[in-house]
Amino acid sequence: MICQHDGAQGEKFLSYLIGIDDTDNLESRGTGYRARMLGLALQETGLGRLRSVTRHQLLVHPDIRYTSHNSSACLAFDGRAGIGDIEAFCVSFLKRESAEGSDAGLCVLLQERVDPSVRLFGLRAKQEVLDQAEAYECAGRSGVLLSGLTGDGGGVIGALAAVGLYLTGDDGRFLWLPGLRELLGTATAIDLRELARIEVVQSVDGASLPPETLVELGDWVRPVLRGGRSVLFVEPGGGDGDRWRVAARDFIKQRSE
């Protein structure tokens, strides 16, 4: 993956990944919501630009404490600032905004310095019951900034796992892309790339569709992460066969969890 980008007038951006987990309680908005708010707040301060927010499903097991679904979130962020400034902003935001009773965890890393063990940790978190000691050991070995911020800090496991799963390029679904939540009505595949950085429009049986394909968007547009790209699954929309619609929510959840 490319980890350094040129902005306007040759400005350099470094690619950071920020994982968060367990920032909520049963009455509050979920971790995905706070991940979006954190990313937009980072962007609004001028520290860089938010590329995406993805949701990653972890193991559901009686020995694992979680609020509702045991999912965590990863922010892909192109930063102007150094990693210390990025981490400090995230720490301040999550300490202030995490729900009462949460066990918030934060993970921050520079994407170009990723150790393969971080990906492995993410994959293990979908299959195994892990503990904080394993998360900190992996982070220390990999040069990752990892910290528990509220409660017992148990969210460090999911925070590190979210980053690892994002790095596989084949896990989770997008909660935020530029313009994604403003999509309405119908759009062609090429419009979706321009409006919301959806890179591939693909039928539920695996066929990539032409750029002029017209898609009825509905009220829940959630591309999935596949092959390192944002992929929107669609299904036939009836009528004369020229129209398609975003695939059913259950199908997208099944493909992204």
Tag the structure with descriptive keywords.
2 domains, globular, 28% strand, 257 residues, 7-stranded antiparallel β-sheet, Alpha-Beta Plaits, alpha+beta, 13 strands, 6-stranded mixed β-sheet, 31% helix
Per the CATH scheme, the topology name of the largest domain is Alpha-Beta Plaits
Mean of all residue-level pLDDT scores: 90
Radius of gyration: 18 Å
Tertiary shape? globular
What is the name of the CATH architecture of the largest domain? 2-Layer Sandwich
Order of helices and strands: EEHEEHEHHEHEEHEEEEEH
In short:
The chain contains seven helices and 13 strands. With 257 residues, the protein is of the alpha+beta class.
Notes on the protein architecture:
It is a single chain. The longest helix is centred in the middle third of the chain and has 15 residues, at 83-97. This protein folds into 2 domains: 4-173, Alpha-Beta Plaits, CATH 3.30.70; 178-256, no CATH class. It is 31% helix and 28% strand. Helix 3 (116-125) packs antiparallel against helix 4 (132-142) and helix 3 (116-125) crosses helix 5. The protein is globular, with a radius of gyration of 18 Å. The strands form 2 sheets. Strands 1, 2, 3, 4, 5, 6 and 7 form a 7-stranded antiparallel beta sheet that branches. Strands 8, 9, 10, 11, 12 and 13 form a 6-stranded mixed beta sheet that branches. The model has no long low-confidence stretch (mean pLDDT 90). By secondary structure, the protein is α+β, with helices and mostly antiparallel strands.
